[in-house]
Amino acid sequence: MSPDAFLQFALSQQVLRFGEFKTKAGRLSPYFFNAGLFNTGGALNSLCAFYAQALLQQSQARGIAFDMLFGPAYKGIPLAAGTAMQLAQMGRDIPYAFNRKEAKDHGEGGTIVGAPLQGRVVIIDDVITAGTSVRESVDIIRAAGATPAAVLIALDRMEKGVRDGQLTAHSAVQEVEATYGMPVFAIANLSDLMQFLQSDAAAVSGASAYRDQVAAYRQQYGV
Length: 223
Description:
The protein is an alpha/beta fold. The chain is 41% helix and 28% strand. It is built from 8 helices and 10 strands. The protein has a 6-stranded mixed β-sheet, with helices on both faces. It has a two-stranded antiparallel ribbon with strand order 1-2. The protein has a two-stranded antiparallel sheet with strand order 8-9. Strand 3 (68-71), helix 3 and strand 4 form a beta-alpha-beta unit. The longest helix has 22 residues, at 41-62.
């Protein structure tokens, strides 16, 4: 499955939208991506097929081995479970786990649900904005004696972060890679989006009309 196919799917689900949107960093972006809108069984099933295929392709291409998946609460929970199911259908049946926000004081207790965290763990999430979710996940995985091996997200916006009101030299994804010494995989990124906006599918949907705005936004904020 290609990044173009994923972006076309996201556009059809109105998860990827074009117009004028204010980002968490206060920027006016010509596009918006909200993975929370993959909110039906069929959409989630298709989304996780993209996740699974991207994980297999990119881990093989980069020589990154992994033993299980971890989904940070809350958005990462269905993503990790769904990706594990898709991997099983592709012949790779591996365990997964996720965390609770609050420790359970009865039953099995603790904050981890699912398989024990062990071996090389891939963190599954929707996007990386400030890296907070990744940091918490890495701490949980390491505390269990396991090794964070990679992060897999849906879309890498490939844009500079903000610190103390100033643009940083690197994106949130690049900072995660540098801080934790592990790769971040994405089903699609901003370069893929620029290419998609030149496709027939983008022209039919009207998305191609925003190509210049996305290019200008990338010129200003891209890495």
